[in-house]
């Protein structure tokens, strides 16, 4: 997957590239794209430009320029729907998305379990059994209902679905779970025919081994996934916060939390570089970041500080979203393409 900001009509992907690429585009630029190769278009907040089947997430965009996220395939795609899941696929990847209404379920826990059970059954039925990357968005993530935070309830439901698999911790994907500002549970994901490589962070306890004080069932995701293709590898970094070991650090200071996040991302980069022998030097070699910010008033100071650290070659989208712990002020995910 290559990641870039769209400055002109996107060129067809080379046969030597990854099976799809991700880039940001303005509303005007969306019109010039080959719709037959678009896997999905993701809009943020009220932006509804582009195709009717675009995914609009209730996460307001904080960037001054109105941008959408575009996923474009190298090869032609087939579309369909199975149960709750809309999908597009070719011989190498399958992309799926679903939007569930919590009111249709007894609880968020039941909604999450249904969603993940559906996804796991779906990818196996379609013979793309390996989740590589998944995103989850739902409102009021820090609200307490029946003495339990809603994020904890979501984690329980997700765990119950994964726990039906043998040794499921070995196959968990990179993931993001962020509080949105709209109704319902939104999930989108990409899966493949061959597994990626889980990458854990030496500065952090694996999320699926967290103490029970954070949730009766720990969060079910990997810190990152490294997916190899014949000539490139894709590096998917999960939503990463100011957590060392399993504890939140720097509760009151957003810029120090940002620095701790970058240390965590640097640790993942170093692991991929040194342990997995991948051609990446440091965080300036990342291609794309997505930053979720709890308080929009922090946007400008975060943007200035992050731009100084990563330089101009990393495309960054800033979104207004709530983080999984109430004392966390921001979270960052990232992507990179590493050519062999």
How would you characterize the overall build of this protein?
- The protein has a single domain (3-339), classed as 60s Ribosomal Protein L30, Chain: A (2-Layer Sandwich), CATH 3.30.1330.40.
- Helices cover 20% and strands 34% of the residues.
- It has five helices and 21 strands.
- The protein has helices at 27-30, 108-125, 150-162, 254-274, 299-310; strands at residues 3-5, 20-25, 38-44, 55-57, 68-73, 78-82, 85-89, 93-100, 130-139, 144-145, 148-149, 174-180, 185-192, 197-199, 224-228, 232-240, 243-244, 247-248, 288-293, 315-320, 330-339.
- The two termini are 13 Å apart.
Secondary structure layout plus pairing:
Elements: E1 3-5, E2 20-25, H1 27-30, E3 38-44, E4 55-57, E5 68-73, E6 78-82, E7 85-89, E8 93-100, H2 108-125, E9 130-139, E10 144-145, E11 148-149, H3 150-162, E12 174-180, E13 185-192, E14 197-199, E15 224-228, E16 232-240, E17 243-244, E18 247-248, H4 254-274, E19 288-293, H5 299-310, E20 315-320, E21 330-339
Parallel strand pairs: 1-2, 3-4, 9-12, 19-20
Antiparallel strand pairs: 2-5, 3-5, 6-7, 7-8, 8-13, 9-13, 10-11, 14-15, 15-16, 16-21, 17-18, 19-21
Helix pairs in contact: 2-3
Q: Strand order of the main beta sheet, please?
A: 6-7-8-13-9-12
In the CATH hierarchy, the architecture is: 2-Layer Sandwich
Biggest β-sheet description? 6 strands, mixed
Write down the domain tally.
1
The CATH homologous superfamily corresponds to RutC-like
CATH names the topology as 60s Ribosomal Protein L30, Chain: A
Distance between the termini: 13 Å
| Residue-averaged pLDDT | 93
CATH C-level name: Alpha Beta
Number of strands: 21
H and E string: EEHEEEEEEHEEEHEEEEEEEHEHEE
Q: How many H/I helical runs?
A: 5
What is the 3D shape? globular
Fraction in beta strands: 25-35%
Helical content stands at 10-25%
Q: Structural class, judged by helices and strands?
A: alpha+beta
């Amino acid at each position: 997957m290559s990641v870039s900001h769209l400055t002109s009509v996107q060129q067809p992907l080379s046969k030597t590239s990854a099976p799809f690429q991700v880039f940001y585009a303005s509303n005007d630029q969306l019109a010039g794209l080959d719709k037959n190769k678009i896997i999905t278009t993701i809009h943020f907040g009220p932006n509804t430009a582009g195709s009717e089947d675009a995914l609009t997430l209730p996460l307001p965009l904080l960037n001054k320029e109105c941008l959408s996220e575009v996923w474009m395939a190298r090869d032609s795609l087939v579309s369909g729907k199975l149960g709750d899941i809309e999908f597009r696929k070719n011989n190498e990847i399958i992309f799926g998305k679903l939007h569930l209404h919590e009111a249709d379920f007894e609880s968020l826990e039941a909604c999450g379990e249904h969603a993940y059970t559906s996804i796991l059954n779906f990818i196996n039925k379609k013979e793309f059994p390996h989740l590589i990357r998944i995103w989850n968005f739902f409102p009021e993530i820090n609200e307490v209902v029946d003495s339990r935070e809603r994020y904890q309830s979501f984690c329980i439901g997700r765990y119950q679905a994964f726990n039906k698999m043998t040794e499921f911790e070995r196959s968990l994907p990179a993931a993001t779970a962020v509080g949105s500002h709209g109704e319902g549970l939104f999930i989108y994901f990409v899966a493949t025919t061959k597994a990626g490589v889980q990458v854990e962070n030496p500065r952090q306890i694996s999320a699926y081994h967290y103490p029970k004080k954070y949730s009766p069932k720990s969060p079910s995701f990997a810190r990152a996934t490294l997916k190899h293709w014949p000539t490139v590898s894709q590096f998917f970094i999960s939503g990463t916060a100011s957590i060392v070991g399993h504890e939140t650090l720097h509760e009151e200071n957003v810029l120090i939390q940002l620095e701790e996040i970058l240390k965590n991302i640097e640790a993942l980069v170093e692991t991929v570089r040194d342990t997995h022998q991948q051609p990446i030097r440091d965080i300036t070699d990342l291609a794309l970041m997505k930053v979720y910010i709890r308080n929009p008033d922090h946007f400008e100071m975060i943007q200035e500080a992050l731009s100084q650290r990563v330089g101009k070659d990393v495309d960054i989208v800033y979104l207004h979203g709530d983080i999984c712990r109430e004392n966390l002020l921001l979270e960052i995910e990232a992507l990179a393409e590493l050519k062999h």
